[in-house]
Amino acid sequence: AQTVTQSQPEMSVQEAETVTLSCTYDTSENNYYLFWYKQPPSRQMILVIRQEAYKQQNATENRFSVNFQKAAKSFSLKISDSQLGDTAMYFCAFMKRIQGAQKLVFGQGTRLTINP
Amino acid sequence: NAGVTQTPKFRVLKTGQSMTLLCAQDMNHEYMYWYRQDPGMGLRLIHYSVGEGTTAKGEVPDGYNVSRLKKQNFLLGLESAAPSQTSVYFCASSFLRGLNNEQFFGPGTRLTVL
Q1: A91, B97: Cβ pair inside 8 Å?
Q2: Is-contact A111 A19, C-beta < 8 A?
Q3: Residue A101 in contact with residue B50, Cβ under 8 Å?
Q4: Cα(B21)–Cα(B24) distance, integer angstroms
Q5: Is the pLDDT of residue A72 over 90?
Q6: Percent of chain B scored above 90 by pLDDT?
Q7: Tens digit of each residue's pLDDT (9 = 90 or more) over B28-56
Q8: Does B42 contact A106 at a Cβ distance shorter than 8 Å?
């Protein structure tokens, strides 16, 4: 069974600091995609970054980058120069094939607070 | 484009009542999904649809029914609501079948069953 584990229920850092959110997953598939979604207090789910498993280069999107370790099944998110607007729940997710489609399997989430 | 919209945003039901949640997307997406989000957990898939007129069960389908009569709409029904169905419900849609395709989410519906 594919599972996604986020071991940090809550994190808190000062504005402008760098923070890393952890995620591990379990799968027997060889090619897959991993995602980080942000959920601010508005509840809207916003895609932050995605990573294709067979690409060795880590994905980056402005201040957001990932450290993808395929052998270790680890997919951490690094936020550089954190901003107050980064305060949100962050979900790691694995895209899994299901009959005729695909679904996202989510971790439990990490509540990140950026303090002024 | 409005993207993915959900109606209503909030609802309170009594045990045994029924209701329908409406999801609409204007991106011409083939695939649509209903997830639920409970405290301390990520989103879990309830039902999904790969096209107009088709639906399939997800991870937690019991107590829910769905319909996709029009490509742009995906309805989630609760025939007899139970307190265990208190949750935040998210609809999502995506364009093509593929592991890299982003699922676009609606703003969610907070449902409380008393």
Answers
A1: no
A2: no
A3: yes
A4: 10
A5: yes
A6: 85
A7: 999 999 999 998 788 999 999 999 999 99
A8: yes
Chain B CB contacts of A104 under 8 Å are: 35, 43, 45, 103
Single-letter residue type at A111: R
Give the separation between CA A113 and CA A101, rounded to whole angstroms: 35
Confidence of residue A55 (pLDDT cuts 50, 70, 90): confident
pLDDT tier for residue A2 given thresholds of 50, 70 and 90: low
> Would the CB atoms of B108 and A103 count as touching at under 8 Å?
no
DSSP of B75-97: EEEESS--GGG-EEEEEEEESSS
**Residues of A with Cβ-Cβ distance to B107 under 8 angstroms:** 42-44
Distance of residue B17 Cα from the nearest chain A Cα, in angstroms: 26
pLDDT value of position B2: 80
Query: What is the distance in angstroms between the Cα of A67 and the nearest Cα belonging to chain B?
Result: 18
Give the residue among A107, B63, B55, B80 at the shortest CA–CA distance from B47.
B55
CB atoms within 10 A of CB A89: 19
Rounded-to-integer distance, Cα A43 and Cα B74, Å: 20
